[in-house]
Amino acid sequence: MATQKLKGKRVAIITDNGFEEVELTSPLQALKEAGVNAQIISPEQDKVKAWDHDHWSKELPVDVQIDSAHPEDYDALVVPGGVMNPDHARTNEKCIAFVKHFLEAGKPVAAICHGPQLLIETGMLKGRTMTSYPSIKTDLKNAGVNWVDKEVVVDNGLVTSRSPKDLEAFNRKMLEEIAEGIHEHA
């Protein structure tokens, strides 16, 4: 992969409290190692709190609060999972509008585990092929998605994976799609 194509790219990681820790920290590390400027965007003010399997975990600093975030400033979007994070974010109109920008513009979007729940709220998934944590399979199908059970699925710049066990493949495809840049609408 051409790491040169990633240098200087800006990526938003949208999250709320209750994201699955490794589903944010692993992609964030991969992005930073590739020379990408990754920023955490959240409805929370200063810090956002992680969930680690069955308990609260570390807090990470919020780089930009959603009220001040401008999606046009970013080249791509990452949506970590966790049960609570996307469930809270999908009720926030500013989070939904932020995500919708990336799908409308054909910018790369990478969502893992329960993260696609936030994407459903955009109403822009019909006809897309995706995967997710199995418990939201029906939600995605009801949104018009062709759901498949694979470690990573790429559909015209949209990267999805099932769970933390898929992070290696997820991170690799996420970086490839970001390097490619804007995708034509399907």
TrEMBL record:
InterPro entries the record matches: C56_PfpI-like, Class_I_gatase-like, DJ-1/PfpI
Keyword Cell cycle: no
Gene3D superfamilies (alphabetical): 3.40.50.880
Domain DJ-1/PfpI stretches: 9-177
Keywords: Glutamine amidotransferase
Family designation: Belongs to the peptidase C56 family.
Entry-linked PANTHER family: DJ-1 PROTEIN, PROTEINASE
Descriptive protein name: Type 1 glutamine amidotransferase
